[in-house]
From TrEMBL, chains A, B:
Provenance organism: Amycolatopsis acidiphila
Stated family: Belongs to the H(+)-translocating pyrophosphatase (TC 3.A.10) family. K(+)-insensitive subfamily.
Chief place where the protein resides: membrane
Protein name: K(+)-insensitive pyrophosphate-energized proton pump
GO molecular function: diphosphate hydrolysis-driven proton transmembrane transporter activity; inorganic diphosphate phosphatase activity; magnesium ion binding
Site (Determinant of potassium independence): K484
Cofactor: Mg(2+)
UniProt function note: Proton pump that utilizes the energy of pyrophosphate hydrolysis as the driving force for proton movement across the membrane. Generates a proton motive force.
Keywords from the UniProt entry: Cell membrane, Hydrogen ion transport, Hydrolase, Ion transport, Magnesium, Membrane, Translocase, Transmembrane, Transmembrane helix, Transport
Catalysed conversion reaction: diphosphate + H2O + H(+)(in) = 2 phosphate + 2 H(+)(out)
Transmembrane stretches, start-end: 17-38, 72-89, 101-122, 143-171, 177-194, 247-265, 271-290, 311-333, 345-369, 390-417, 423-444, 489-506, 537-558, 603-621, 627-646, 695-715, 721-741
Record membrane topology: Multi-pass membrane protein
Pfam family, one: H_PPase
Length: 763, 763
């Protein structure tokens, strides 16, 4: 473990404190800029009263959901807050810091999610309104992108500020406290991704099954009782969930870099990983402000240009920072290291690897999910031979893109690792911070999607928007589809980089715990040797299995919740007279309530699985199996996440291709086939797929946190197989009970009396 | 690596030779019994001239395909035969033995596949004929099961005979030679699974797309030019591919047990792993002969009863054998081992774990794919809300069943490992041999499926079978669906057990190679330490990615080949007058030729990927990354294989549920939805899924074979990064070229002139 050879001084110098303080100020500036962007968005025109009415219903529904989710998660948060105290730490300051910053990470994560939703539900109205004015396209696009800019600034500002404060306050003890911060962020983000993902797709699928399929009324038709819920879903899933997820990606990657930086360079290694994302803040501001729609180019070109410009600026500034702040040789740490390479060069190249990786994922995802490239065109073509071939070709696209994306990510990890030499793991983490410099722009790109999607919904429902404006909104929506897929690719890449780095710090943590107990060097060796055994292989298999299980649970949850929506909408059509004629308003609120209740109930099982599975494996089968578990979960999780995201994206855009008049156009059999593909893809790309990213991080952080406790009960005076088995069994029982409960729920729904399951005969 | 402590004597005692000779004789007896079963099948009545005509066309098509496949594979086999000489070995005798037994394994694998096809294409005619007689159900079932019995006896007979001969001829050097034998079997089986899988599903999907969907004529209608190809496909895929696959599972598991047995107990450890499957031969004979259809119970009950009876007999006999042939204490190997447990008890429990595992998989698979249980009923129910929900629920079933099956397999591995103590890995391998005792019955069960399926096809096409007989054949076909899914589960379980054992022997092989080079103990330690690094994690990710890629390639290959069938059948309908009226016979042979050509072409890319990916990873990234690669491939491969097999099985049987009159019955929208599910499931369950089992074994054996060479070029006098890089790059280039060629093929097909793509307007 040569990378530890430099870890000596755990004191920050005065200069280091100064830099960390500057970074904190940069983070605050980002928040201020975000505030101004937010003001600009809110200042835009709000359209007709009818449009405002609809927007208000969506705002209220989304706020109500997030408030209930906050209450649910608060309980969970407090329990974990207390449990964290039970885990080993150096002293009470560290122990308290870890728990407190767990809460802060959790609150930040929720806050940024809430902000994303709050602003999006206001911005969509304004985008819809702007599309009606002259020069509407440019105005609408500007509002949508500024909305994303505000959320993006909030994301990077809060993440960077939190990390900088921890470094300032805890210096050498920062790593343990940062584990808490990252864990809080990841845990809440996972719940928001899962809950929001279930909400949005349950409402969407439920609305489509009754509206489009049974009653033959268009999407977003106000006669459909699930329409408002569908629009609320876009905001709590694609906005709140996504923002929290990206915040967590940002925080955890930064945390991993800081932990490994301190492990490689001592406390002064805490500084450079702060500088890189601070540079990212600056370039994100540039990126947001230079994004201006041009009338003669597609929105995607505009957004991509901003991305590439800010990526290049980031790379240049990071290189400069590396040469200014890092020594030119490892000799500074002792003459014997003089030939170990140039830290400044290593850091520069590592950061650039991360930035280039972001660009490559952008390209790959665009290729596999964009309507203008081969794969989606091919899926569209297969619609001529029916739904089965659409499904098969979409799955192939997903598999293929997952393989190439995973290989690119793997190459980046391996490149950084090879390059890093003595600081190999730190180099991997730095590649992660390189990716982070693009997060500001990425959030801005992603928020673009749901805001335009919702603007289109409001326009449709109000009927107050003319043909040209509708055209504008449709174009923006299509652009949003691709930007959404790109974000998911980048998010999963941060998961792999952070996880690889954390995988290293997991081992560190074990070695350190062993040395605390006073095991000899030989003892450490033999302990680590047991990691290479069939035991580990079983761990790898369980890790891969958890990813499959989590995905299956998420897809199932959507089906169940969508079923409840279907029954309710059918009931309203049947029992409330005048809905179909448009004389009576359906009870939108009831559907929102049902989906809110169901998605909060459904998120428990996958959430508990994520937290307790590593505990069951770690205490039950040991640290070697847990290492294997993490490796299996990371590898399979990466492939599964990209597969789900990209096949979903390809189906969605293949449908758009057909709707644009290819292969028979709207209403043809080919169209029906692509609608089936799109419906299958919905829970893939918006529920199961994106939730795997925080899942990986949660499982990784849980493992890092519990590693010392596992060691404590495995060797030395506290060693006790009984205690380990007991902890493992408790965790297992929690998982089993959660799974059984959600199984029974599915029985209850299919036992709903037949009459409530029948479609209303109104047509 | 304590399990090696016993490995001293590499000499077989005279008694050991005697036992091995007895085992060889038992193997020959199995072949003789198989011959008598075969005679019995051939002696049955052959029905009408029309039926014989059709059967003859199928026989000729299948034989033509396998002959062309033999020619293609011969070239490949000779190349590998020569390449094997380049790999390190102790002396020339070992080197020659390894290559020669590679060829023998390959020839055996092909032979058993050919036999399976040859007999099935004759048995289906006789089953169809028997169904017309009085007491037809019992007679038909008896012929179908005896056919399977003949193939099963051939499988276990050849596998056991080969292994016993190697042990007799090579004694202490047997392990290396066995690696060659297993590799030959696995490699050919993989190609036969992939090629046969592509053939059967391309013909099936192609026939359905034009016949059922476009021309609205029933399945197996003689006017469809692809009908004969479809029936040929069942035989080359489900019979030949399956038989070769199970032979390879048998051979490789046995090889793994023998390798680890000799590693644990020296040459005498080669004996017990031979005794266990010899017992399996005896119980398989009992199982086949006690299977008698009763008129008042379903065929599945009959078959399951035979399975359980023979499993119990196996367990009892194995326990007796363990106490007779194994010492009661490790003290026999030195007083210091006196307290290491009782070898006889350990071996007995391990074997029973394997047998119980087979039973559990049978139960689990039956639950998830059988029409009488919740999961398939639920998939059937979702057909009421359309194809999208059918697809989603089927995917959920697949994910869920994959998780539970993987966990059961993992528990078996872990249980055997924990139990094994000093001989942990050997215990895992013994659990594998426990599974093997059920293979004879399993093959008999599996062959049942395609034979009844084809019998139904012949009956349908000839029109010479009455209502009652058709009913009998339909029932047998449904039973066959579940037995097929069960076999796949068992096959993948053998893959995991063998792979885990081989994973251990991979490390053994590295340690041994290191000690040959003269590395010190510390050197070995530090070399093994590098296994635990992010490098390994990258390996895990690549291993998982290869499974995704392989699956995607297989699914894609089916789509492409099915496309070619569609164009040809459309062409015949358009250009040959009188087909639709039934006055002219379509050119069946042309479709068979096209599918033969395409499937042989398509199997190259996945095949090359399987062989060269471990070479690229091992030489390029080192032994640690290769260990990770194997772990990733095993874990993800297991889950993916079960997911694909069971979701496919569930869709197929959900369709049958609807066809039995549920949810609207045949012709309803619900039926159309399940047909889409079934079509998606076809390449899942019959092409990609089953091919993953031999894929895992091929990759494992390639790794074990090349491990010493990697070590040779990594440390010691021959160490050369250049050589390693060169080998890795050559392997990589081969993969890339293969992928690019198959990519270009897909372009060529979609560029086929539009007129040949149009359906004929005959209706």
């Amino acid at each position: 473990m040569s990378r530890q050879f430099l870890a000596e001084g755990l004191e920050l110098s005065g200069g280091d404190y100064g830099i960390a303080a500057v970074v904190a100020v940069v983070a605050l500036i980002a928040l201020v800029i975000g505030y101004f962007l937010l003001k600009e968005v809110l200042a835009a025109g709000q359209g007709t009263a009818k449009m405002q009415d609809i927007a208000k219903a969506v705002q209220e529904g989304a706020a109500a959901y997030l408030k209930r989710q906050r209450n649910t998660l608060s309980i969970f948060g407090v329990v974990v807050f207390l449990l964290l105290f039970a885990l080993p730490a150096d002293d009470w300051s560290e122990r308290i810091g870890r728990s407190v910053f767990f809460l802060i990470g959790a609150v930040f994560s929720f806050t940024i999610g809430y902000l994303g939703m709050w602003l999006a539900t206001r911005a969509n109205l304004r985008v819809a309104a702007a599309s009606r004015e002259s020069g509407g396209r440019e105005k609408a696009m500007r509002i949508a992108f500024r909305t994303g800019g505000a959320v993006g600034m909030g994301t990077v500002g809060l993440g960077l500020f939190g990390a900088a404060v921890v470094v300032l306050a805890y210096a050498g003890q920062a790593p343990k406290v940062l584990e808490g911060f990252g864990f809080g962020a990841a845990l809440i983000a996972m719940f928001m991704r899962v809950g929001g993902g279930i909400f949005t797709k349950a409402a969407d699928v439920g609305a489509d099954l009754v509206g489009k399929v049974e009653q033959n009324i268009p999407e977003d038709d106000p006669r459909n009782a699930a329409t408002i819920a569908d629009n609320v879903g876009d905001n709590v899933g694609d906005c709140a969930g996504m923002a929290a997820d990206l915040f967590e990606s940002y925080a955890v990657t930064l945390v991993a870099a800081l932990i490994l930086g301190s492990s490689a360079f001592g406390a002064s290694g805490l500084i450079f990983p702060l500088i890189v994302p601070a540079i990212g803040v600056i370039t994100a501001v540039i990126g947001v402000y230079i994004t201006r729609a041009r009338s003669n180019e597609s929105g995607l070109v505009t957004i991509n240009r901003s991305f590439y410009i800010s990526a290049v600026i980031s790379a240049v500034l990071c290189a400069i920072a590396a040469f200014v702040f890092l020594p030119g040789s490892f000799a500074a740490f002792g003459e014997q290291y003089a030939n170990d390479g140039n830290p400044a060069v290593i850091a520069t190249v590592a950061v650039i690897i991360g930035i280039v990786l972001a660009g490559l994922i952008l390209k790959l995802t665009g290729y596999y999910t964009g309507t203008e490239h081969g794969p989606v065109k091919n899926v569209g073509k297969t619609s001529e031979t029916g739904a089965a071939t659409v499904i098969l070709s979409g799955i192939s696209v997903g598999f293929e893109s997952a393989v190439y994306t995973a290989l690119v990510i793997g190459a980046a990890v391996f490149g950084a690792y090879l390059l890093g030499g003595a600081i190999a793991l730190f180099a991997v983490a730095l590649a992660g911070t390189g990716l982070l410099t693009t997060v500001g722009v990425i959030v801005a790109m992603d928020t673009f999607g749901p805001v335009s999607d919702n603007a289109q919904g409001i326009a449709e429902m109000s009927g107050d928007v003319d043909e040209a404006a509708a055209q504008t909104l449709t174009e923006l929506d299509a652009v949003g589809n691709t930007t959404k897929a790109i974000t998911k690719g980048i998010a999963i890449a941060t998961a792999v980089l952070a996880a690889t780095a954390l995988f290293g710090s997991y081992q560190d943590s074990i070695t350190k715990a062993l040395s605390t107990i006073g095991t000899t060097a030989d003892g450490v060796k033999s302990f680590i040797d047991t990691i290479v055994s069939p035991n580990t292989l079983v761990g790898v298999m369980i890790g891969a299995a958890v990813v499959f299980m989590f995905s299956g649970l998420a897809v199932n949850a959507v089906s169940r919740a969508a079923g409840a929506v279907v029954y309710e909408v059918r009931r309203q059509f049947r029992e409330i007279a005048g809905i179909m004629e448009g004389t009576t308003r359906p009870e939108y609120g009831r559907v929102v309530d049902i989906v809110t209740r169901d998605s909060l109930r459904e998120l428990a099982t996958p959430g508990l699985l994520a937290v307790f599975a590593p505990i069951a494996v770690g205490f039950g089968l040991g640290t070697g199996a847990l290492a294997g578990y993490l490796a299996g979960a990371i590898a399979t999780g990466t492939l599964m996440a990209i597969f789900l995201a990209n096949s979903g994206g390809a189906w969605d855009n293949a449908k758009k291709l057909v709707e644009d008049g290819n292969h028979g156009g709207k209403g043809s059999e080919a169209h029906a086939a692509t609608v089936i593909g799109d419906t299958v893809g919905d829970p893939f790309k918006d529920t199961a797929g994106p939730a795997i990213n925080p899942l990986i991080k949660v499982m990784n952080l849980v493992s890092v946190l519990i590693a010392p406790a596992i060691v404590q009960f495995s060797v030395g005076p506290d060693a006790s197989f009984g205690v380990r088995l007991a902890i493992s069994l408790v965790a297992l029982v929690i998982i089993v009970v959660a799974v059984v409960i959600s199984k029974r729920r599915s029985t209850v729904i299919s036992d709903t009396p037949a009459e409530t399951q029948e479609p209303a005969k109104t047509a």
